[in-house]
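Section 5: illustrative case.
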């Protein structure tokens, strides 16, 4: 406080003959002390208060935050069938995905080396082997939820091998055909843990050119116009 603002009280100038001189002296001393304290308090209030710097805010951390999904790998099985005569084939399949955003994925998929359905007619039998590979993009809805639907568009190639035998010819012919492949998919994923999931998807494949299987003098079956596929995979984010 500013001590120069204090007033000095003459507490000693008390006549000794005054009645109760000691009590008067004590009262004057108390009054002088109280006045001095009031002046010190008033001087302290006039001085500006120094503001202390505020500590920097600590960013809040979400205890339930999930790890960033960047690279994913899936493996499983695909069931492939033609709508025009070629039966069901079970193919191992694998896919690698890169998440540009939580909802947007780019991926590459392969399927093949599976079962070979047989096309039988009165003229003979044909075994059909099919493999395909695609590059595409998927959009996931509600990507942070445990269950998320998704749609996929992809392009790629399909390789079809036809090996047949007719009643008239003991040794049949083998034909290989490469086709450009368009694929569209609709499916859903189920999160199992923070890094693992399961996905089920239905696909429509359209091949150009498609493969027509000729039995003697007529077309016995076709594949690729269109083909339907159902895939079930297990995946993990790396």
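Designed sequence:
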């Amino acid at each position: 406080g500013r001590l120069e603002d204090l007033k000095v009280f003459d507490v000693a100038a008390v006549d000794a003959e005054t009645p109760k001189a000691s009590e008067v002296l004590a009262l004057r001393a108390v009054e002088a002390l109280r006045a001095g304290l009031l002046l010190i308090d008033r001087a302290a209030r006039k001085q500006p208060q120094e503001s202390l710097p505020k500590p920097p805010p600590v960013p809040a951390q979400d205890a339930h935050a999930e790890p960033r999904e960047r690279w994913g790998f899936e493996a499983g099985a695909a069931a492939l069938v033609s709508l025009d005569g070629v039966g069901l084939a079970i193919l191992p399949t694998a896919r690698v995905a890169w998440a540009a955003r939580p909802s947007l994925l780019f991926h590459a998929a392969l399927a093949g080396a599976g079962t070979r359905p047989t096309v039988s007619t009165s003229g003979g039998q044909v075994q059909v082997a099919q493999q395909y590979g695609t590059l595409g993009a998927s959009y996931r809805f509600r990507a942070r939820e445990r269950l998320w639907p998704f749609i996929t568009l992809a392009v790629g190639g399909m390789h079809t091998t036809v090996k047949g035998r007719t009643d008239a010819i003991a040794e049949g012919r083998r034909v290989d055909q490469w086709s450009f492949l368009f694929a569209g998919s609709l499916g859903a994923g189920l999160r199992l843990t923070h890094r693992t999931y399961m996905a089920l998807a239905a696909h429509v494949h359209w091949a150009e050119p498609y493969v027509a299987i000729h039995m003697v003098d007529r077309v016995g079956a076709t594949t690729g116009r269109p083909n339907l596929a159902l895939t079930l995979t297990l995946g993990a984010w790396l």
